[in-house]
Design brief:
By secondary structure, the chain is mainly α. Helices cover 49% and strands 2% of the residues.
Length: 284
C-alpha cells in the first residue's frame, strides 16, 4: 500500500527521538496504573481525530477510507471513532483563580516594589491603597478575600510577617495542597503540549517559526550540576517575572480575541543532585 502524497516518508527517523521522548511518559503511566491496552485505546482515538481534522484536504470530504489509509486503523474502527472529538483539559477553577491572583500580585505595579517583587500586603486598607482584599477583588468577586486568604495560608501559598502583612510565598509558584495533583496534571498537559507543538511546527515547516533553544552540558560533577541548576532557576524566574509584568500591562489596552500565548522555561538535571528548598522566602 503506497503512502499518500502529503504524508512524510521518513517516519523511521523518528523512532529514536520518540523512544527518548516517551520514556518518562511511560514511567508516569506505569506508576499511575495506566496499562498498555488502555494507552492504545487512547492513541487509536487520537490517531483518528488528528487524521480526520488535521489532514483533511481542502475542498474534499474526509472519508473513512482516507483516515484508515493515514492511520493504519481498520475502516470499521475509524467509522466508530470518528467525531468523538479530541480529549480536552479544562482549567480547574482553583488553578485559574489562583494563577490569576498570583499573576497580578507579581506583575501589577500597584502590588510590586521598584524591583518588581510582590509587596507584603495588609489584609485590608482604606481607599484604593494596595491590600490583599483589593488584590483579590480585582480578580474575582465570587469569593470573599478572607476565604481566599485562609485557603492560601492553609496551603502555604502565603504567610504573615511580623507586621501582620500577607507575604507571597515562593511555594505559591508550585501547586500544593489538596488540589496539587489536579493542578500539576493540568499544567503537565498544557505545557508539554505547547512545547511539543512548537517543536512539531518547526520540524514540519520550511523555516522554524517558534523559538526553542536549550543550553546543556554533560560530564559534570554533582557540585557543578547543582550550582548550575540553582543559577538557572534564578535566571528563569527573573525572565518569567519580567514577561508576566509586560504581558499584564499590555492586556490592559488589548481589545481581546481568540489567540493565546505561552512562554515557558524548564530546568532538568540527572544525577544525585539535592532537591531545591521549598521553604518560603521573605522578599522584604
Amino acid at each position: 500500500m503506497s503512502e499518500p502524497a502529503d504524508t512524510p516518508r521518513d517516519g523511521a527517523s523518528l523512532h529514536a527521538p520518540l523512544a527518548r521522548l516517551l520514556r518518562p511518559l511511560v514511567r508516569l503511566l506505569v506508576a499511575r496504573g495506566i496499562t498498555f491496552p488502555a494507552l492504545t485505546d487512547l492513541l487509536r482515538e487520537l490517531y483518528v481525530n488528528v487524521a480526520e481534522y488535521d489532514f483533511a484536504l481542502t475542498g474534499k470530504e474526509q472519508t473513512d477510507s482516507r483516515v484508515s489509509l493515514l492511520t493504519g486503523i481498520h475502516r470499521k474502527e475509524v467509522r466508530r471513532l470518528r467525531g468523538a472529538g479530541a480529549p480536552v483539559s479544562a482549567v480547574p477553577a482553583v488553578v485559574s483563580r489562583t494563577s490569576r491572583i498570583i499573576a497580578r500580585w507579581t506583575a501589577d505595579p500597584a502590588f510590586t516594589d521598584a524591583q518588581g517583587h510582590p509587596l507584603p500586603l495588609p489584609r485590608m486598607a482604606e481607599g484604593s491603597s494596595p491590600s490583599f482584599e483589593t488584590l483579590v477583588a480585582g480578580i474575582t468577586r465570587d469569593l470573599r478575600p478572607r476565604a481566599v486568604l485562609d485557603e492560601w495560608l492553609d496551603r502555604g501559598l502565603a504567610f504573615t510577617d511580623a507586621q501582620d502583612r500577607i507575604v507571597l510565598a515562593e511555594a505559591a509558584y508550585v501547586p500544593r495542597g489538596d488540589d496539587a495533583e489536579g493542578s500539576q496534571l493540568y499544567y503537565f498537559g498544557r505545557n508539554l503540549h505547547d512545547h511539543i507543538a512548537a517543536s512539531t511546527a518547526n520540524i514540519l515547516s520550511e523555516a522554524p517559526r517558534f523559538l526553542e533553544r536549550a543550553v546543556h552540558y554533560d560530564g559534570l560533577s554533582a557540585e557543578l550540576a547543582a550550582r548550575l541548576e540553582a543559577r538557572s532557576r534564578e535566571l528563569a524566574m527573573k525572565v518569567l517575572t519580567q514577561a508576566n509584568r509586560e504581558a499584564h500591562a499590555a492586556c490592559k489596552t488589548d481589545p481581546g480575541g481568540e489567540h493565546r500565548w505561552n512562554f515557558g522555561l524548564y530546568v532538568y538535571a540527572e544525577g544525585d543532585i539535592p532537591a531545591p528548598s521549598a521553604q518560603p522566602i521573605d522578599r522584604r
